[in-house]
Amino acid sequence: QNMNSTLHYIHNDSDLSTNSSFSPEEERKSKVQDVVPQALLDQYLSMTDPSRAQTVDTEIAKHCAYSLPGVALTLGRQNWHCLKDTYETLASDMQWKVRRTLAFSIHELAVILGEQLTAVDLVPVFNGFLKDLDEVRIGVLKHLHDFLKLLHPDKRREYLYQLQEFLVTDNSRNWRFRAELAEQLILLLDLYNARDIYDYLRPIAFSLCADKVSSVRCISYKLVSEMVKKLYVSSTSAFVVDLTNELVEKFCRCPKWSGRQTFIFICQ
Known about the structure:
Layout: H1 2-11, H2 14-17, H3 25-30, H4 38-45, H5 50-55, H6 60-75, H7 84-91, H8 96-130, H9 134-142, H10 144-148, H11 153-157, H12 175-188, H13 194-209, H14 214-233, H15 238-252, H16 257-267
GO molecular function: protein phosphatase regulator activity
Protein name: PP4R1 phosphatase
Keywords: Repeat
């Protein structure tokens, strides 16, 4: 009883009642749920208020973004409407650290929301992160497989055209970005058919095999070998024949010793 009265007092606090973000009646109703005390959720949602970030804590939006998947899990899929606006506000925050935090957790949120809500509400945000700063892009790249596997196969194929964009970074010295791409491509082999692997993933893999950084090349050797294995077990054997012929032509018969060494490492 004491807890309820305290929450009732907080809920009717003048600071909250005068908050413009909760003034329209329709908007207020859209954020009502019965899982946790409503006052507690209202306090959480008010963290995205710009005035609070200026007067209370400049990092408050980042903390809010960090906790959002946990809040979504607690409220459940049926109450996502309570968090949707707050999530979109955080996803467009001026601070890249806030967007980076969301980028690292968007795959977890997709598991909570399911395929339908993910396609409608998360995919547009995900697409925005793909075009963001490298500090934000690395968040979606590290969990690219985890996110794409939750999408419908037709929607998943649309990202084949964008994978090569990860080869371009704001700083060319950022080799860990390319190394992470190679790691993710190994996992993505299970999500696409032989034709897609040959047409879209093969050129990226060959480009990574010729990278200037040895750590990137080492991961890429594994990527190509897994690609050969995947194409070999597929029903279309022509792809693996073409791929092996290309390996021989590009690396085994390469005039440079480094190219011929690449071929040996892939075979190994």
